[in-house]
Structures are given as C-alpha cells and as structure tokens.
Specification:
By secondary structure, this protein is an alpha/beta fold. Helices cover 52% and strands 11% of the residues. It has 9 helices and 4 strands; from the N terminus they run βααβαβααβαααα.
Length: 221
C-alpha cells in the first residue's frame, strides 16, 4: 500500500460502522446484528458523528478478512473516503492476531482511526496498541479452543461407535431444500451448519449437532 500523507479533509468525520455475525454467535452471545447496530448508533451519537455508513457481513467467519463488506470498507479508508472504522467488539473485525496487527498498522500509516467499543483505551498509544493486540490474541485463542472441542467431541462419538454423517438420508425434505438454497446463495457449509444449530433444526436422528460434513452430504446428495 502507498505510504503517503493523508489529504486534509475539513468536513464531518466519515465513519464506517462495521457489523459481522455468524448465526451461532448471535444465538449464544446475543451479539446479533441489531445489538451491534444499537451499540454503534449510541456511540456515534455520543461522539457527535452523523456521517455514518453501515457495512454488514452476515454469516462470515472472522478467521480471515476475506469478506465483502470489510474489503469494501478497507478500500474506502485507504483511498481517503472515510476516517474511522468503528466496531462493537474486536472479534467482530477479526480473530486473527496477524490480521488485527496488520489493520492496526494500516490505520496508523494511512492516518485513519480504528475504534472498538470493547477497548477502553486509545489504540493509537503504545499501551493502547499493546492491549488491542492482547484482545486479538485472546479472540484467536477462543476460536481455536472451540475448534479443538468440536474435534474432540467428534472423536469421542466415533470412538463410541456413532456413525457420523449417516443420518443425512433421514433429514426432512424441507430442510434439504433450505440447505441447498443456502449453499446456492454462497454460504459455506460451516455457516449453514451454524445457522441450523442456532435455530434448533433437528438432525436426521433428531439429536446431536449439525457439522460441515453432514451439510456437505445433503447439499451434494
């Protein structure tokens, strides 16, 4: 990216309010789109920010920044069409330490502000930067821990003689139609599984959880 002096802008602060959610997180933490939006709107009112544009990524993981809305937002910031990137929590933006560190560096170099409501300090200072990076480390640890627990649960079921994925043929037709429609719309197998689990949609055997593999079987069956 080009390292240049930011052009002086004298108009109202241009804010990009970024929201991201996967359905599973929305159900378990309450950090849904509407909850995030309310928090961001309140912060904008408190700071007197009126020039606000909302960017939303729904059903996307925070493992990487390969998401349409945040990609658009970062392009606007780099080209000096926005001044602030506002998020309700650090993990709405990224759960990757490397990605978060890169974003912080870009914000400093390109002279725009990265503001997260769960950071009770100024990330532009040395101590604030350290705390922001620590928050990102914890978010990444949480994601990896969830993955390890999921793999352990699958291994335990397999060791107990449970045939994983064998219930796909018992899934009601309306669920099959929905899964294929979600897949056609661009959702990943994991995102579809998270939605089904969050909404309590029963699996073929009316117990257990949905996993990417079972969704894949149905979508391609």
């Amino acid at each position: 990216m080009v390292n240049r002096q930011r052009t002086k802008y004298t108009g109202p602060t241009r804010v990009l309010a970024y929201l991201r959610v996967s359905t599973e997180e929305q159900a378990t933490s309450g950090a849904g789109i509407e909850g995030q939006r309310s928090a961001l709107e309140a912060e904008c009112v408190r700071r007197g920010w009126s020039n606000v544009r909302y960017l939303v990524d729904s059903g996307y993981s925070a493992k990487s920044l390969d998401r349409p809305a945040i990609t658009e937002g970062l392009a606007l910031l780099e080209t000096e069409q926005a001044d602030v990137l506002l998020v309700s929590k650090v993990d709405r933006l990224s759960r990757s330490v490397a990605d978060f560190a890169a974003l912080s560096a870009d914000a400093k170099r390109q002279r725009w502000a990265l503001v997260a409501l769960d950071l009770p300090y100024d990330p532009t200072t040395a101590s604030g930067e350290m705390m922001a990076n620590l928050m990102a480390v914890l978010a990444q640890w949480e994601r990896r821990l969830i993955g390890e627990r999921t793999r352990a649960a699958l291994a335990a079921r397999k060791a107990a003689g449970v045939k994983l994925g064998g219930s796909a043929r018992l899934v009601p037709n309306e669920v099959r139609v929905r899964i294929r429609a979600d897949r056609d719309s661009g959702l990943t197998y994991r995102a579809i599984a998270e939605r089904l689990n969050a909404e309590g949609v029963p699996t073929g055997r009316n117990r257990g959880q949905w996993y990417s593999m079972s969704v894949h079987q149905i979508a391609n069956g």
